[in-house]
């Protein structure tokens, strides 16, 4: 006995906003890469890497909004929601490599000042373009992020990149006014320091999902208490909760009920109550319960 209600985990209403933000972020990322090559700015290149994290996050958010709509089949009974997890895994690995290279290059420039000149004026112009673009993207997402955790994540990614662009602007102003090129290396190290914790957190989340750990913030003992408080329920065992991807938890349990409840027509009501409890209190929309009469546990143990 289980709940086959369509999942509301991935709303499609914000897809257009995410797509527009992705277009803005990707365009500015390319502009920053070109500007970094022409100006010699490591900070711009680091900020482009930071924008790559935002672009990747927006791509993942778009996947999250579309992949759940693909129907499950006999081969992939849960559908294609794990595609988001594998995308996040690739993203996390790339970010660690990029951040490590930026940090190494930044330290090298600090230890060997004067070997690399930076065109501060061009660096400043490109950084301002990035700041404005990120501001526009944040404005587009500002309303929707209050109602969608998916869009909220993308909004915070863009906010982080706006801070990175601000750091590049400060470094560019220092270079233009004082000629102190090390400001570029310091800004690049600051941005690398912003990237690494996000990358590590992303990889940690991927490992948690692939290891089928309980979702963060989900307390199994509280779910047990809610189930045991349901009228007609005697016991609960074989409780399992994991997630297919972020925001897509799955729950299964064997629930022991009074034998009379299975014969007097109360089983359907108990099942409906349990499913509503998981959905309303714990945001678990895919729950599976096996209702068993008292004494069935002993039979299972013997088998």
Summarize the structure.
The protein is mostly helical and 303 residues long. The protein contains nine helices and three strands. The protein folds into two domains: 196 residues, Up-down Bundle (Alpha-lytic protease prodomain-like), CATH 1.20.1510.10; 83 residues, Cation efflux protein, cytoplasmic domain (Alpha-Beta Plaits, 2-Layer Sandwich).
What are the SSEs and their pairings?
Elements: H1 15-39, H2 42-67, H3 83-111, H4 120-141, H5 149-178, H6 182-210, H7 220-228, E1 233-243, E2 249-257, H8 267-282, E3 286-293, H9 296-302
Parallel strand pairs: 2-3
Antiparallel strand pairs: 1-2
Helix pairs in contact: 1-2, 1-4, 2-3, 2-5, 2-6, 3-6, 4-5, 5-6
Can you tell me about this structure?
This protein is mainly alpha-helical and 303 residues long. The chain has two domains: 15-210, Alpha-lytic protease prodomain-like (Up-down Bundle), CATH 1.20.1510; 220-302, Cation efflux protein, cytoplasmic domain (Alpha-Beta Plaits, 2-Layer Sandwich). Helix content is 64%, strand content 9%. The protein has helices at 15-39, 42-67, 83-111, 120-141, 149-178, 182-210, 220-228, 267-282, 296-302, and strands at 233-243, 249-257, 286-293. It has a three-stranded mixed sheet, with helices on one face. Helix 1 (15-39) packs antiparallel against helix 2 and helix 2 (42-67) packs antiparallel against helix 3. The model is unreliable at 1-12 (pLDDT under 50).
Please describe the structure with a list of short key phrases separated by commas or semicolons.
Alpha-Beta Plaits, 64% helix, 303 residues, 9 helices, three-stranded mixed beta sheet, mainly alpha, disordered N terminus, Alpha-lytic protease prodomain-like, 2 domains, 9% strand
């Amino acid at each position: 006995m289980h709940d086959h209600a369509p999942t509301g985990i991935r709303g499609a209403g914000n897809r257009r906003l995410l797509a527009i933000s992705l277009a803005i972020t990707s365009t500015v990322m390319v502009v920053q890469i070109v500007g970094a090559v022409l100006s010699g700015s490591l900070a711009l290149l680091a900020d482009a890497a930071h924008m790559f994290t935002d672009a990747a996050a927006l791509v993942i958010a778009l996947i999250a909004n579309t992949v759940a709509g693909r129907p499950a089949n006999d081969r992939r009974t849960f559908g294609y929601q794990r595609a988001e997890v594998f995308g996040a895994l690739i993203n996390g690995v790339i970010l660690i490599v990029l951040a490590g290279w930026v940090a190494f290059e930044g330290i090298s420039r600090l230890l060997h000042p004067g070997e690399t000149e930076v065109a501060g004026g061009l660096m400043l112009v490109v950084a301002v373009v990035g700041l404005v673009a990120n501001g526009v993207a944040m404005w587009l997402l500002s309303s929707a992020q209050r109602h969608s955790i998916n869009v909220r994540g993308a909004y915070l990614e863009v906010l982080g990149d706006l801070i990175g662009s601000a750091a590049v602007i400060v470094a560019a102003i220092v270079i233009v006014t004082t000629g102190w090129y090390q400001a570029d290396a310091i800004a690049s190290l600051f941005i690398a320091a912003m990237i690494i914790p996000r990358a590590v957190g992303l990889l940690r989340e991927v490992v948690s999902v692939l290891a089928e750990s309980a979702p963060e913030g989900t307390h199994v003992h509280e779910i047990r208490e809610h189930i045991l408080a349901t009228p007609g329920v005697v016991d609960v065992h074989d409780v399992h909760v994991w997630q297919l991807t972020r925001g897509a938890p799955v729950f299964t349990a064997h629930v022991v009920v009074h034998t009379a409840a299975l014969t007097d027509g109360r089983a359907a009501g108990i099942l409906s109550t349990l499913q509503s409890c998981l959905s309303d209190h714990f945001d678990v929309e895919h729950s599976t319960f096996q209702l068993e009469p008292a004494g069935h546990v002993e039979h299972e143990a013997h088998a």
